[in-house]
Amino acid sequence: MTSKEVALEKCDGANGTTSIGGSSVKLRRELGLFSAVNLILGVMIGSGIFVSPSSALEHSGSVGLCLIIWTVSGIISLLGALSFAELGTVLGKSGAEYSYFQEAFGNIHKYWGPLPSFICAWIYVVILRPAEVAIIVMTFAEYAIQPFTPDLEPNYKDTAIKLTSLAALFVMTYINITSVKLFVKVQNIFGICKVFACLIVIGGGIYEISKGNTYNLSKGFEGSTTSPGGIALALYSGLWAYDGWNSVTVVTEEIINPGVNVPLSISIAVPLITGLYVFMNVAYMTVLSYAEMTSVPAVAVAFGARVLGPAAFLIPLGVAIATFGCAMSVQFGVTRVCYTAARGGHMLEVFSYVNLKRLTPAPAVALQALLTSVFILVGNIRTLIEFASWFLWFFYGLAMVALLVLRRTQADKPRPYRVPTLVPCFVLVVAIFLSILPIVHDPSVKYLMAIGFIVLGVGVYTVFVYYRKTPTAFLRKFTFLTQVLFESVPPNDHQD
């Protein structure tokens, strides 16, 4: 019998747990406070703040109002993250919204109760996050090859970007399959580099202000929009740049001492990012005029070319580092949603299996790599994530409802961390507002696409989850092949 066959024999079919030499096989708690903070930094700081932070300025109409929008967006993100911290610590499960919906609504009705959880997993795992990773990694590739392909024809450049994207995807997939410790080490290094890149921009802004370059800033609130719709769209743009504040609750089961480290990491990371974002925008608006900010393809690159001189290459390098780290962290998080959904019976069971040696959800990581590869090869997928914020805030709002429901249905359950009731209520109001506003302000076919994805998900849920109409023989072979290929077995579901 081969080593792989021995590994598969160790699976105990009676209780669904696995052990090697008396120790259970499952995901381990390997992320401490510093790594949890870096995970949030890794997901939140992507290309947006470097490439296209101008949307909030365009909608707000003035420097002063734009800075207020960035500050308010950071505060709303912090309040939402702290609400998720309560949910994460009271339930102690990975998967964020998926787990919260399952716990709050799963037992309400046999059919309708588990449906929100499934739709959440369906949208995140199959569509939204793979498409998001594809776009982020393609942005990385564009900036990574920029110094080497200045005169390349557009068609050849597109091919080079796709090939570089696939290579980068292979590297981050290898990291996420190989070891959580390796991911943590790489993520921590990239997190420090990201913050350093942000500080370079802020330092350049301080230097320009110290020289007396304050003409653009002196305009203050001149030209501010008075339209509630304009203010709301500016807020929408700001909040999109802050997305990822819930990332630490996606991996709660891998956080050391989550009752302390989950809320503490959020309390450190989100205000830190808010400060970086606000002061980076001050730096941009010190150097670039309103017209330049809203027209250049990459704001930070234009800023660097004007301020940093020979060191301007640091900005494209910073964008490349930020995007690679962000894509790797998003992939890390969504594999845990897939893993948790598979444990809950809402994805193929094999995607909940754990590699025997590395203790990583290798099949779930491989699935995300495959889906992301498809989106990279398709290329033109920006329409898919144009309504991403709509989906995100719809799910965030439903998570606030889940928090309020669980406070009633599980009132006696110990809560290591608890936010004031006013906080989730406020975030719920913001979520409702942000879910309705885009449809009213800009009715578009993309929202019909969003509804179409949901309807398709309901169909998949009804046939394959509720009625369990699955090709059993094929799935048995697929499961065995996947187990052998990734040396994976069912995890022990008992938590530390």
From TrEMBL:
<keyword id="KW-1003">Cell membrane</keyword>
<dbReference type="Pfam" id="PF13520">
    <property type="entry name" value="AA_permease_2"/>
</dbReference>
<feature type="transmembrane region" description="Helical">
    <location>
        <begin position="63"/>
        <end position="85"/>
    </location>
</feature>
<feature type="transmembrane region" description="Helical">
    <location>
        <begin position="166"/>
        <end position="183"/>
    </location>
</feature>
<feature type="transmembrane region" description="Helical">
    <location>
        <begin position="359"/>
        <end position="381"/>
    </location>
</feature>
<feature type="transmembrane region" description="Helical">
    <location>
        <begin position="387"/>
        <end position="407"/>
    </location>
</feature>
<keyword id="KW-1133">Transmembrane helix</keyword>
<dbReference type="GO" id="GO:0015179">
    <property type="term" value="F:L-amino acid transmembrane transporter activity"/>
</dbReference>
<dbReference type="InterPro" id="IPR050598">
    <property type="entry name" value="AminoAcid_Transporter"/>
</dbReference>
<keyword id="KW-0597">Phosphoprotein</keyword>
<feature type="transmembrane region" description="Helical">
    <location>
        <begin position="221"/>
        <end position="242"/>
    </location>
</feature>
<feature type="transmembrane region" description="Helical">
    <location>
        <begin position="419"/>
        <end position="441"/>
    </location>
</feature>
<feature type="transmembrane region" description="Helical">
    <location>
        <begin position="189"/>
        <end position="209"/>
    </location>
</feature>
<dbReference type="GO" id="GO:0016324">
    <property type="term" value="C:apical plasma membrane"/>
</dbReference>
<feature type="transmembrane region" description="Helical">
    <location>
        <begin position="262"/>
        <end position="280"/>
    </location>
</feature>
<feature type="transmembrane region" description="Helical">
    <location>
        <begin position="447"/>
        <end position="467"/>
    </location>
</feature>
<keyword id="KW-0813">Transport</keyword>
<keyword id="KW-1015">Disulfide bond</keyword>
<feature type="transmembrane region" description="Helical">
    <location>
        <begin position="121"/>
        <end position="145"/>
    </location>
</feature>
<protein>
    <recommendedName>
        <fullName>b(0,+)-type amino acid transporter 1</fullName>
    </recommendedName>
</protein>
<feature type="transmembrane region" description="Helical">
    <location>
        <begin position="314"/>
        <end position="339"/>
    </location>
</feature>
<keyword id="KW-0472">Membrane</keyword>
<feature type="transmembrane region" description="Helical">
    <location>
        <begin position="31"/>
        <end position="51"/>
    </location>
</feature>
<dbReference type="InterPro" id="IPR002293">
    <property type="entry name" value="AA/rel_permease1"/>
</dbReference>
<comment type="similarity">
    <text>Belongs to the amino acid-polyamine-organocation (APC) superfamily.</text>
</comment>
<keyword id="KW-0812">Transmembrane</keyword>
